[in-house]
Design brief:
Layout: E1 30-33, E2 39-45, E3 48-51, H1 52-57, H2 77-81, H3 84-98, H4 103-106, H5 109-115, E4 116-118, E5 123-125, E6 133-136, H6 140-150, E7 167-169, E8 175-176, E9 182-183, E10 186-189, E11 198-201, E12 205-206, E13 209-215, E14 234-241, E15 244-245, H7 246-252, E16 266-268, E17 273-274, E18 282-283, E19 303-304, E20 307-313, E21 320-326, H8 334-342, E22 353-355, H9 370-373, E23 381-382, E24 388-389, E25 397-405, E26 410-421
The structure holds calcium ion.
């Protein structure tokens, strides 16, 4: 059954510019602080933030089984726990209320004054309480590039890579949303040619262009999620900048994988775009040869055509786009990642965050990290202001954006924007 809110013909009575990431067909979910210092769950159409707690109090969700305080929360976890049927009813209802011909809120100034905010009146917060964070490594191009640089160019992919959606358990305590500056991390590295490690600020801070999906309660401990059911447990997606300190990583990652090089900061975009909103943008995935084991074989299309870009903005200078990639390049799909994650009975909860891994394409301008773009420092990339970079410098801001292109409209993710500050003393 088609999802009502996805109808490309819908128009809102709110003003939406044609190139907005947030037309009425998007209806993402987020958490924001209002001008009155109230924290609420909301959505966004055009450049308006919409207070869903206020809408609920004023009766606009009548007929949908929701607890009174479901939107009066500082995270989306409880709403996400309500499950797909409820998300769909709520998104369809929001779409209905803001549809051009519906006068119920359009013509009620008193309610509009309570429900609508302009973006300068709100502050976006982290949308979910992230209990667990898992990061995959699912771009064949990225894994191949890293294998070439760190190991053996002839055998860049490790033997398990084409059989397992490789991943590791990350840390959620240092995941933040957009517009929150971070500090250059300090740690232990082994300089080239040295015979003992040194301690100090990382000299190779990098971004990783990723997307991440947010789950609902999917299973009980011991149960597995079949690959063809997996998407039912995915609430939506965000952009993820999985900051990495390459020099720390290189020294510490053997044999157990990433640790302190990865957990000093990861930044996500604040609006969760629902998997429902992305349905019109499903595409085929790259062919998988050899065929994966049966529990990872799925039917239908499970990749999504999301255009991605990364820009670097030095202090007091214009930004330069340094990479353009696409989520559809991923070798392993989200459904396969979630099926694999639970195949041993690992429990997945509402608000868990699953990173895709760095999303690189085939061409050098589509690589999703500085490590690859500047090929381990050997090919500095040029910025608009004449400077070059092989890694991110103090005061640089890294901006990631993503959007799907519909017929005459976009479904976008907005951006995640993070400035790197010098190390704390
Ligand atoms: Ca990563």
């Amino acid at each position: 059954m088609p999802i009502k809110a996805n109808n490309p013909g819908l128009k809102s009575w709110l003003d939406v510019s044609p190139d907005s990431d947030f037309p009425i067909q998007n209806i993402p979910f987020g958490v924001f602080l209002t001008r009155d210092d109230v924290i609420t769950i909301g959505t966004r159409i055009g450049d308006y933030a919409i207070d869903l707690a206020a809408m609920h109090q004023l009766g606009y969700f009548e007929g949908i089984p929701l607890t009174d305080d479901i939107f009066l929360q500082d995270t989306l976890n409880d709403f996400i726990s309500d499950g797909k049927k409820t998300w769909r009813l709520v998104r369809d209802k929001i779409s209905d209320v803001f549809e051009a011909d519906n006068p119920s809120l359009r013509d009620n100034k008193e309610h509009r004054d309570i429900i609508l905010f302009t973006l300068d009146e709100i502050e976006m917060k982290l949308p979910v309480y992230i209990g667990d964070y898992t990061d995959f490594y699912s771009s064949r191009e990225h894994a191949t590039n890293v294998g070439k640089m760190f190991r053996d160019p002839e055998n860049a992919l490790l033997p398990n890579w084409l059989h397992i959606p490789v991943g590791y358990h990350g840390r959620s305590s240092t995941i933040v949303t957009t517009d929150i500056p971070i500090h250059r991390p300090k740690g232990q590295t082994m300089p080239k040619g040295a015979d003992a490690p040194v301690f100090g600020p990382s000299k190779m801070v990098d971004f990783e262009l990723e997307m991440a999906f947010i789950t609902t309660d999917a299973n009980s401990m011991g149960e597995s999620i079949p690959v063809d059911d997996a998407e039912d447990y995915i609430f939506g997606l965000v952009l993820l900048n999985d900051w990495s300190a390459r020099d720390i990583q290189k020294w510490e990652y053997v044999p157990l994988g990433p640790f302190l090089a990865k957990n000093f900061a990861s930044c996500i975009s604040p609006w969760i775009v629902t998997l429902d909103a992305l349905q019109p943008f499903k595409v085929d995935s790259p062919a998988q040869k050899p065929a994966p084991l049966p529990y990872l074989q799925y039917s239908g299309q499970k990749s999504y055509d999301v255009h991605l870009e990364v820009a670097i903005q030095p202090e007091n200078a214009a930004e330069s786009v340094v990479a353009r990639s696409n989520f559809k390049y991923m070798y392993w799909t989200m459904a396969q990642q979630l099926a694999h994650h639970t195949v041993n009975g690992c429990e997945i909860n509402s608000g868990d965050l699953m990173g895709s891994g760095t999303i690189s394409g085939e061409t050098p301008d589509s690589f999703g990290s500085m490590l690859e773009l500047a090929w381990q420092g050997t090919k500095p990339i040029s910025l608009e202001n004449g400077e070059t970079r092989t890694s991110i410098q103090d005061q640089d801001t890294v901006i990631m954006r993503g959007y799907c292109l519909g017929d005459g409209y976009k479904i976008g993710f907005g951006e995640v924007r993070t400035q790197l500050l010098p190390p704390l003393a």
